[in-house]
Design brief:
36% of the residues lie in helices and 21% in strands. The chain is α+β, with helices and mostly antiparallel strands. It starts with 10 loop residues before the first strand and ends in a 9-residue tail after the last helix.
Length: 107
């Protein structure tokens, strides 16, 4: 029998690097599918004709709410700070702590 108290960990946060080196942050349940959609020109207008797109960071982040809060926090960082995150490849817990989102049972 499944543990009904378990928190679903089905959302991921990802960062893509565009051809010109720009970083794009997003969230998805299926990052590979979402990347294919971006490459096909569906989704974010800011990524159209910016390929190839390279996945440089991905982390399972938990619920949709947690993913949205984490994405919002990450988008507020400078490019230098985002590049540091890409190099460090932090865990979900470490990323949320760096963004000041604290620790909770979702992670």
């Amino acid at each position: 029998m499944a543990d009904v108290t378990a928190v679903p960990q089905d959302w991921s946060l990802y960062i893509l690097r565009t051809r010109d080196g720009a970083l794009y942050t997003g969230i998805a349940k299926d990052v590979a599918r979402r990347q294919r959609e971006h490459l096909a020109g569906r989704g974010a207008k800011s990524l159209r004709a910016k390929g190839p797109l390279t996945l440089v960071y991905q982390v399972a982040i938990g619920t949709h709410s947690r993913a949205l809060r984490t994405e919002s926090g990450l988008k507020k960082l400078s490019k230098a700070d985002k590049e540091a995150l890409v190099r460090a490849q932090p865990s979900a817990l470490s990323l949320c702590q760096r963004l000041g989102l604290g620790h909770d049972a979702e992670l």
